[in-house]
Amino acid sequence: MFNWREVPFVRILLPFILGIIACLYLDYTLPCFNYILLFLICCIAVSVFRKTNFKWQNIIGLLINLFFFLLAYQLCFFHNHWHFKNHFRQFLHSENLIIGTVDNPPSHKARSIQIVLKTSKIGDNYDELHNCKGKIMLHMRNDVSSQKIEYGDLLVLKAFPRLIDEPLNPDVFNYKKYLAGKNIHYQAFIKSGRWKVLQKNQGNKLLSMAYRARKNLIHVLAKHLGKGESFAVASALVLGYKEELSEELKNAYATTGAMHVLAVSGLHVGLIWGIIAFFLNLIRWKHPLWHWTKTWITILLLWLFALVTGASPSVLRAATMFSFVLIGNTLNRNTNIYNTLAASAFCLLLFNPFLLLEIGFQLSYLAVIGIVYWYQKVYSLWYIEHQAGDHIWKLSAVAIAAQLSTFPLSMYYFQQFPVYFLLSGLIVVPFAFLILGMSLVLFFSEYLLPFFAGLFAKILFGAIWLMNALIFLIEKLPSGSFKNIWIEFEVLLLFFLLIALIVLAINLRNIKYLKAALAVLFMVGFFNLFSVVQKVNQKKIIFYHIPGKTMLDFIKGEELVRIADQNIRSKTMDFVGGNFITKSGVKKQSEYILGEEVQTNSFYSNACFIQFDKIRIAFPEELPKVKLESKIKVDYILARNNYNYSIRELMQFFEFEKIVFDGNLSTGRRATYKKECEDEQVDYYDINVRGAFIIDLNKN
Q: Which residues pair with residue 483 across a beta bridge?
């Protein structure tokens, strides 16, 4: 039976998380919140110092939960820089002089460099500067001068920061929401010569030291491994530096369910802990002071490792949790692992409530909870006498336990489920230990025994090469993963409710929870059936937004016909329409060039017309030279390519319901067309402003 008294942090973490979620959705504060918090503190204090009647305990418990709910709400609200009274947006003009500190190691792309600037001053010129706060995502050209920018540099620049736009296509990655979770709401594109470094090393001294150490260690790996796949995997696995990972590598590790090994997490922190403990235990000093000294040395080194590897949510979780465990062991107290996990989560969210939005934070805690709860239950299902077989089964049991708690969230975020995760786990976990250990040996030998560094580098290179080869081999196995899985948020919640009910049925040995679990499973099946029926009967047209390009999808049932410009890259088309197609359940897809003559059962197109079901779309490149006897009836006009005709001229030849402004219309031409439409009282839709235009024929 689960004892709530053993897990006080679990009890306070639940209302704390609910408070953060409420603030993220409501984003509203009341002046009286602080007084309510003060009142609750007084009530709780009175109950603690004065023995309360048993009948009041439930009320006191409710007040405590309310306190942590409101505390989380307020912390989350005031953690959002958008609510600062001196946020730089209060002083924005057409062009601004901005001074700020580089808040992270710059991210280097092929042609650009991304920098998060923590602003401190803004104004029209040096004589009229205002103190301010807030972060801006800067995009700079990747050249010799910008490559020298480092964390902690104080920059001065001229720019006009703009709000990050909402995504203009359905179900694509929401870059605005992603950056908002990092407290970044504005971005600016900085031209060469419009910025200058005023001072160096103005950031946090500890972080500066950690980032410099990371940069030096990356150079060590590049020196010995070269700029290839081995270096990319080693720098990601050991140091959390993922910028060198190719799409081919990412896809291979993601498809096989091994992507987690390329993100520094609890696995890596656990190995570092083991190495530190091994060397510290060699010191046989019996003084009680050494017991505590050893603990604090271990905690310090673990946190240094966390900082050097980029302080991702998963490594922060692991470092915080191990710190609590170490302190508990030093105090000779048997701590409940669930309470330790909750305590680490509470501390991290207390410091940064927005961590709750991080996918890494969510998956990391779910994986550990799953391993703690399910591992022994899974492992006990099969007894293997042979020692090697037993070790393999232990690794498999850990992988299964982690998947049991994380698979709903993984499918929700990544739309796939790796079939061979057990096989890849058996490979990457031992290799991860070997690669991390050999990398540490390489780092030490580079500075202490450089003569042996080359030998260790060859062993490291061989280990990474073999691991990559095995991962690519697993990727090529038939039916390696279930892809194009789309589950709605409501179904995700049902999955977690199903898991919770199964856990309750096992713990309490009560069949009523199992019956409830079956009822939830029936609801999941009903949602799936309802979704399938909708997809079979759907008829949709989608005008996508691609700057300078045209792309339209025509979906009928589970079949799709795509019409697009010839020079659009397949990668761009997948990014723009991939998730929407997955959500729509498309199983058969045909692609044609815009203007090409195509005819199917329900679709026809030629040089300037498209007909799908009963909908007719015209995209005329030029208008007839002579007046027609009667107007051509169409439903929509697609205005594109800045053709030299006016709306009034279009109306002389076409009778239509609406005109759609495509993504390749210039700003000036769109402005002219809009004015003409308003003058002629013509209905229009601007994809550049309102995003993709979706026509649901069943609703229309």
A: 416
Distance between CA atoms of residues 245 and 194, nearest Å: 31
Q: Which two tokens stand for residue 558?
A: 């589970």
Name the pTM for this structure.
0.86
CATH number for region 88-203: 2.40.50.140
Order across the sheet with 603-605: list the strands.
598-599, 603-605, 609-612, 615-618, 636-639, 658-661, 684-686
- pLDDT tens figures, 661-682: 998 888 888 899 999 999 989 9
Measured CA to CA, the distance from residue 672 to residue 101 in angstroms comes to: 42
Q: Is 199 helix (H, G, I), strand (E, B) or coil?
A: strand
Residues 105 and 124: beta-carbon distance below 8 Å:
no
Please tell me the distance from the alpha carbon of residue 660 to that of residue 688, in angstroms, as a whole number: 10
Mean pLDDT score of the chain: 86
Q: How far apart are CA 27 and CA 250, in angstroms?
A: 36
Q: What is the CATH number of domain 539-696?
A: 3.60.15.10
Environment class of 202 (CB within 10 Å of its CB; exposed 0-12, middle 13-18, buried 19+): middle
| Ranges assigned E (strand) in 492-640 | 539-543, 551-556, 559-564, 588-593, 598-599, 603-605, 609-612, 615-618, 632-633, 636-639
The per-residue pLDDT for range 152-177, each reduced to its tens digit, is 999 999 989 999 999 999 999 999 99
- Neighbouring CB atoms inside 10 A of 671's CB total 11
* Total Cβ atoms within 10 A of residue 425: 23
